[in-house]
Amino acid sequence: QVQLQQWGAGLLKPSETLSLTCAVYGRSFSGYYWSWIRQPPGKGLEWIGEINHSGSTTYNPSLMSRVAISVDTSKNQFSLRLTSVTAADTAVYLCARMVTTGWFDSWGQGALVTVSS
Amino acid sequence: DIQMTQSPSSLSASVGDRVTITCRASQSISNYLNWYQQKPGKAPKLLIYAASSLQSGVPSRFSGSGSGTDFTLTISSLQPEDFATYYCHQSFSTPYTFGQGTNLEIK
Predict the structure, then answer these.
(1) Tens digits of residue pLDDT in A4-34
(2) Residue B81, CA distances (Å) to B16, B36, B37, B50, B78 in order
């Protein structure tokens, strides 16, 4: 049974950098894709990007210029950095595991990040 | 990007009702379509993967069908715990995209 636990700063000012980490417990880190997804308050889900255990990444073009996802396989963790945040980046950020055949079967608990001056 | 359109956006129903939610993709996605249930303050929960496969532990009253561009999620007999928001999700190509959600409310 895999568990994803995430953490990071919850309140940012405009132009700062969002940084979140997701730790994976209980199962192998390899063989899956690890994603970040966000959900603005009261709205739907937006996929931000993914990484595999080798460090290969794919990003949503809408955020590509500001986003970086990295992995630390020694700790079974992956991280999200989003630069130059604005109020539009206020959202609950979720980490999730995607099986190679294409669905998110495990999710972190979510973390609300608020961008406000 | 592949656009996913769900209908209806909201739905009122009663315990015991049969409910169907539809999801349409802007291009063919074969069977790379998944359904999630989300309750307030919680992460989404996988219900159906690959259009019609029931995730382990999910009650059999949930079912999915479709391929290509048109898909449905059916709940055969609504239970009180089923009132939530439902999202479809395509994993055919990146960027992965989700439907806008269907809010299932108690009538």
Answers:
(1) 999 998 899 999 999 999 999 987 788 999 9
(2) 12, 14, 11, 24, 8
pLDDT of residue A27: 76
pLDDT band at A87; cut points 50, 70, 90: very high
Using CB atoms within 10 Å of the CB of residue A86, give its burial: 0 to 12 exposed, 13 to 18 middle, 19+ buried. exposed
Q: What is the DSSP string of chain A?
A: --EEEEEE--EE-TT--EEEEEEEESS-STTEEEEEEEE-TTS--EEEEEEETT--EEE-TTTTTTEEEEEETTTTEEEEEE-S--GGG-EEEEEEEEETTTEEEEE---EEEEE--
Nearest to B95 among A60, A96, A110 (CB): A60
- The Cα B15–Cα B29 span in angstroms is 33
**In which residue are the tokens 């889900």 written?**
A45
pLDDT of residue A29: 84
- Using an 8 Å CB-CB cutoff, list chain B residues near A109: 43
The whole-angstrom separation of Cα B40 and Cα B89 is: 19
What pLDDT is attached to residue B82?
97
Give the pLDDT confidence score for residue B1 in this predicted structure: 97
Name residues 84-103 of chain A within 8 A of B (Cβ): 94, 96, 98, 101-103
Would you give the distance in Å from CA A28 to the centre of its chain?
18
pLDDT tens digit string along B61-88? 999 999 999 999 999 999 999 999 999 9
